[in-house]
Specification:
The structure is a single chain. The protein has a single domain, classed as Arc Repressor Mutant, subunit A (Orthogonal Bundle), CATH 1.10.10.10. Helices cover about 50% and strands about 15% of the residues. It starts with 5 loop residues before the first strand and ends in a 5-residue tail after the last strand. With about 120 residues, it is an alpha/beta fold. The strands form two sheets. It has a three-stranded parallel sheet. Helix 1 links the parallel strand 1 (about 5-10) and strand 2 (about 40). Helix 4 packs across helix 5 (about 80-95).
Length: about 120
């Protein structure tokens, strides 16, 4: 069975990201097995919710199930204005949630996008 490509989304600080990197580096230096991990971290919940709005989440779902398509075809399928979909797609590409093919089609490279939100201690 093929392994699913997973992106973990959450809230955290730059220090936490650096701590994860350092721990992975140390494991690799010891010769321990290191698995790849894909993360998208936002500093605050409001920032996460702004970037992954309900409209953008629907866009991701439609694109994931529909496969590679042009932004125009995606806008038609979503029944949204092209300009707004183009703006959302550009931002989601910047965040690494969407990728673009050489012929300009866009797609979601992730099988799973998992979110973990912890309450402050």
């Amino acid at each position: 069975m093929a392994r699913k490509k997973k992106l973990s989304v959450g809230i955290g600080t730059a220090k936490e990201a650096l701590d994860r990197f350092e721990a992975t580096w140390e494991r690799a230096a010891r010769g321990a097995r290191v698995t790849s991990e894909h993360r998208l971290t936002f500093e605050t919940l409001p920032q996460l919710l702004k970037e992954l709005s309900p409209g953008r989440w629907t866009l991701l779902e439609v694109l994931r199930t529909g496969g590679k398509m042009s932004v125009y075809a995606l806008a038609k399928q979503l029944a949204r204005h092209y300009k707004n979909v183009h703006t959302d797609v550009a931002r989601l590409i910047d965040l690494g949630l969407i990728e673009k093919t050489q012929d300009g089609k866009v797609f979601v490279p992730w099988d799973v996008i998992a979110a973990e939100l912890r309450l402050a201690a």
